[in-house]
Amino acid sequence: MTDPRGGAGREGSPPSGLATETAETPEDTGTGRWPARLAVITAALTLVLIVSGGVVTSREAGMAVPDWPTTYGHNMFTYPWSAMVGDIFYEHGHRLLGTLVGITTILMCVTLLLGRAPVSVKYLGALAVVGVSVQGVLGGLRVTESSVTLAIVHGCTAQAFFGLLAVIIALTRRRPLARLRRDDDPKDPGARKLGFVAIALAGLIYLQVISGAVTRHLGEQLAGAVHLHLLMAFVVVAGVILVAIAVSDALSRQKDGDAWRSDVAGATMLLGGALCAQVVLGVGAWSMTAKARLSAIEPPLEVAFTAAHVAVGAILLATALFLAVRLRIEPAPAPALGPTGGDGGAACDGAPSSAAASEIAPDAGTPARAGGLDASPSARVAMGVA
After folding, report:
1. Which residues of 265-299 are buried (b: 16+ CB within 10 A; e: fewer)?
2. Tens digits of residue pLDDT in 94-120
3. Boundaries of every domain in the chain
């Protein structure tokens, strides 16, 4: 049939000057709202759980409850609140909070599996369930075996799980995206490589997390652990600075995708702010720990500084992973209005052809609205997730 606005279209299709609602528009990125919401909720609870674990370690309360999965012979969920005193409160509370994280992780995975998320994101949801289950078992074995090595592994896997949640959040964000970048992307060939650089930075941060866990548990017995942790801190600082400079350059060259730019710029700023806080907390934790050793007691400030130091380290790792994912996704081009020319249809892979992009023009007197009802089909499809 003939488009009344001048464009030819197939029968049953809307005119070229009108919007088309698809499952890939910014209003519905394919994952739905609940997976993203549950991913954020689970990540927030996990961060609280990491802080709780840091407090348990700083207070040396990991063995305050000597049995698992029971608590002094009681079912974990029926243990009397009146008996949760002293270090038992911190250790048993840590277990209950871990159970809550497990429940929200399962709910997130179920919503991903039942929704229309990409298969790869569903796999990540299933991996999160496996990860939180393994983490719970590691925590229990650390108690039953009274193993410091398992305590180190338990702390490191908690940070890895938090990073995995950051990746899921980045992939379920309800923002207009186009597709994963190609290595030969002619518009910005360095953007995908920059994503790999951010992944490398996340790897460095995770190595620093491991060295920090070793230092906390074996610092007095393992010669050079503190010095290695300090050396790696300088490497991480240099890496964050280099990535921030590279991202700023990439943002200056990328003109499309305001939402993408907002995510990348925000993650970079958070990375820099968390790094500054981490340095301050690291110095504070070191000085407070030294004072605690001299006084043979653990002052509240020492516990607060060390737990916060662990938590901000997790934020650094998660932010670097979030940034890496967003850098590897191409932003949607700015939408244009009006009827298209002869090549105004959508090109293959859900992206408009170069000729169509150059010929889309606004109607006279009609203001451009991103993702609005006046956008052409090719512009709307370009904002979807291919």
Report:
1. eebbebbeebbebbeebbebbbebbeebeeeeebe
2. 999 999 999 999 999 999 999 888 899
3. 28-174, 176-336+378-386
CA atoms within 13 A on the CB side of 357: 14
Model-level pTM?
Answer: 0.75
* Bridge partners (DSSP) listed for residue 179: 330
Q: Which residues of the chain have pLDDT under 50?
A: 1-29, 176-180, 182-184, 186, 332-386
Q: Which amino acid is at 376?
A: S
Chosen CATH of 176-336+378-386 out of 3.40.50, 1.20.120, 1.10.287, 3.40.91: 1.20.120
Residue with tokens 């190609």: 182
Query: What is the per-residue pLDDT across 1-60, written as a single tens digit (0 to 9) for each?
Result: 444 444 444 444 444 333 333 333 333 445 568 888 999 999 999 999 999 999 999 888
Q: Give the percent of the chain with pLDDT over 90.
A: 47
CA distance linking residue 95 with residue 116, whole number of Å: 33
